[in-house]
Amino acid sequence: MGLGGSILDVDRTLPNDVVHGVLLTESITCRVDKSILYSSPKIYGFSVALMYGLGGVAGATSAGSTFSGAVNYKRGPATFHAGYLYKRDGAVSGYYEGWGIGGSYEIGPARVYLGYTKDDYSDRTGARSLQNTVRYAIANLGASYQVVPLTVVVAQVMKLIDTSDGLAQSQNVHVVGLGLFYALSKQTNLYVGYAQVKNKNGSAYTLGQALYYGVSASPNSTARVLRFGVRTTF
Asked: Porin domain spans which residues (predicted)?
């Protein structure tokens, strides 16, 4: 929940992303080739990073290029992250622009998360006036609580506001999620989670994950997902 990792590597703790009407629920990481990166040392918990990725398109210096920056803070019970990313399309005059801000604060066995992100995808296909932009913002509030040393409960509420071109009105989505994690070891967890998406104003989102996109729900309906399994990190 909240913003995770560095915006420089386009690391996003989802469900802060949307693919074909599906709210993703797993982290996705993208890398930028031919990039130049500066990362500052930590000073009183603060660090700053900047990155520029060369586009590599012959005769067009800016085509396919990427610029991003991030400010991170971690000290004591508090963390804070803010980042910006701009990527220009290498083939046409489109672009992706996104920024986000968020953080968390630990209170005993509990931690509260707060985040806000804004994403624009613009694609021009021909004349400059023919432009289609996918535009949405996501605000989320979450919390985790360590019940006992091996068990953690998490909860999250989220609102997505879709103001993309071509919509008759803003399409809003409300998401509520609950989860329980039990640690078998430092690398392996058992988990169970439930989430529901309440669609409004003609929206038809459902929930998915990194390897399964699912299908869109019926407009203005409520989509529900229940998952359980084992997760191992290496």
From this structure: 25-201
